[in-house]
């Protein structure tokens, strides 16, 4: 194995559940405010997963006070405390950018296994 | 050339690591050393103090007889790269001595790194010197040309050093103040912050400060 891959593997995180686009997740992010550090929970739908090694990331979208908010989070950042899956969604594509044009009822995602 | 000891290395590639605070840092992984001292130069004999080191083993069948003879002094086979480092006192080094990364550097050190940049061929002034160029549309007839290269009656010539199109890259460049983020002694690998000149597998000289 190449030393580059070895360093990457050492720094990568494998402690997340296998979430996919369409899933609703809770991301616990450590936020540093001045001297204080606290954990903020960002809950929303995963609309993208960028694969890769250290550069991997995922994007979570939620509607906050009527405004769509998206957060792209580096997959292997030590600032992520944990990722929890709330619901598994049934979607037919890997990039759910169409959700940006939909709101309310239309933007719902059917849960996996429920007809 | 800085008058400091250094080490030769080979670029492995780039990746990112996270600092303790969680900020992402771009890093270059370099396979550096071990370098074998092949010759020591002194003020008395050559007029300056330096050591000559070899890096990267090379088959004897691919070397000339004089090169084989020169490398034989080190007793560690032939080398692809042979370079010189200026030192203050060359008498403390002996021929055949191995120089490893951890002998010179430790984590957190600031170093200078030299390497040959990727050759870009014949390039225009926009890519080569960062000229602005003109606008593409709205009747503009000035796009990527360099423009005027000087005055007429006086000086009646183009000043020396005028930035013009030409060969770009493939020249020795030194990046100063590069931080060492990690050293893997067992694998002879050093992790440096930021990008470094040259292609993957390219030779790099890492100088101590």
From TrEMBL, chain A:
GO terms for biological process: translation. The gene is rplS. GO terms for cellular component: cytosolic large ribosomal subunit. GO terms for molecular function: structural constituent of ribosome. This is Large ribosomal subunit protein bL19. Keywords: Ribonucleoprotein, Ribosomal protein. Coiled coil: none annotated. This protein is located at the 30S-50S ribosomal subunit interface and may play a role in the structure and function of the aminoacyl-tRNA binding site.
Automatic annotation (TrEMBL), chain B:
GO terms for cellular component: cytosolic large ribosomal subunit. One of its GO terms (molecular function) is rRNA binding. Part of the 50S ribosomal subunit. Forms a cluster with proteins L14 and L19. HAMAP family: Ribosomal_uL3_B. GO terms for biological process: translation. One of the primary rRNA binding proteins, it binds directly near the 3'-end of the 23S rRNA, where it nucleates assembly of the 50S subunit. Belongs to the universal ribosomal protein uL3 family. Keywords: Ribonucleoprotein, Ribosomal protein, RNA-binding, rRNA-binding. This is Large ribosomal subunit protein uL3. It comes from Candidatus Desulfobia pelagia. The keyword rRNA-binding applies.
